[in-house]
């Protein structure tokens, strides 16, 4: 854990900016990835980029690394060479937060057998028309909760015979993680503002350039 990341959760100016900007930017990401009123899977990548952009804005591009080897499946970004996983969840239940995406139940089971927390986590809880939050959960907090629950109660595998979309952190373990005294939190009111958005305008403008 690099203590400098705590600035995001303790410095009044950046906390206020996160509270005001994050709902707007995540709403824009939804509009960008929507087709016929339905939000596409690519919204997850856009949300991740928004959080990485926040880190770049606050800490500078030279302190951020996004070119992560595919072998480090849980790591999304390095901040001051400290590995961080970026995750988002919608609603109040804290269920469905993926540890890994898998293609079959055998792979999910193998992951469970060998898993242990490997990096810090930045988590965004999206709760439109309600209150959610932005959380920083250090690796040592995850390890403590993982050891307390044990892997069988910490990790939720897909039910046999269903579409195995991956292994998740159980909702009960997730609730312990976010209420831990060493977890940092910024409460966020999730309100959507009306936006005049056209998915093609910026591309048309680029075509118009000489």
Describe it for me?
- The protein has 210 residues and is of the alpha+beta class.
- The protein has a single domain (3-208), classed as ECO RV Endonuclease, Chain A (3-Layer(aba) Sandwich).
- 40% of the residues lie in helices and 23% in strands.
- The chain is built from 8 helices and 11 strands.
- The strands form 3 sheets. The protein has a 6-stranded mixed beta sheet.
- Helix 2 (12-32) packs antiparallel against helix 3 (43-59).
- The longest helix has 21 residues, at 12-32.
- The protein is globular.
- The N and C termini lie far apart (47 Å).
Any descriptors?
11 strands, 3-stranded antiparallel sheet, single chain, 6-stranded mixed sheet, 210 residues, alpha+beta
Largest pleated sheet = 6 strands, mixed
CATH topology: ECO RV Endonuclease, Chain A
Q: What percentage of residues falls in helices of 4 or more residues?
A: 40-55%
Mean of residue pLDDT values: 90
Give the helix/strand layout.
Elements: H1 7-10, H2 12-32, E1 34-35, E2 38-39, H3 43-59, E3 64-65, E4 77-79, E5 82-90, E6 98-100, H4 105-114, E7 120-126, E8 130-137, H5 139-149, H6 151-154, E9 155-156, E10 167-169, H7 171-179, E11 184-190, H8 201-208
Parallel strand pairs: 5-7
Antiparallel strand pairs: 1-2, 3-4, 4-5, 6-10, 7-8, 8-11, 9-10
Helix pairs in contact: 2-3
């Amino acid at each position: 854990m690099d203590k400098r990341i705590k600035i995001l959760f303790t410095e009044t100016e950046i906390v206020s900016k996160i509270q005001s900007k994050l709902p707007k930017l995540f709403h824009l990401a939804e509009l960008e990835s929507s087709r016929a009123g339905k939000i596409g899977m690519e919204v997850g990548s856009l949300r991740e980029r928004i959080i990485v952009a926040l880190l770049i804005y606050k800490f500078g591009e030279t302190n951020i690394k996004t070119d992560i080897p595919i072998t480090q499946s849980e790591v999304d970004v390095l901040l001051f060479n400290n590995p961080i996983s970026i995750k988002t969840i919608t609603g109040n239940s804290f269920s469905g937060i993926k540890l890994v995406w898998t293609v079959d139940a055998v792979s999910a089971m193998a992951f469970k057998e060998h898993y242990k927390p490997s990096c810090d986590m930045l988590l965004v809880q999206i709760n439109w028309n309600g209150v959610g939050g932005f959380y920083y959960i250090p690796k040592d907090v995850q390890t403590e909760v993982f050891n307390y629950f044990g892997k069988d109660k910490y990790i939720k595998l897909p039910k046999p015979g269903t579409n195995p979309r991956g292994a998740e952190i159980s909702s009960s373990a997730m609730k312990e993680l976010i209420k831990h005294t060493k977890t940092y939190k910024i409460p966020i009111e999730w309100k959507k503002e009306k936006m005049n958005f056209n998915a093609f305008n910026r591309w048309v403008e680029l075509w118009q350039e000489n």
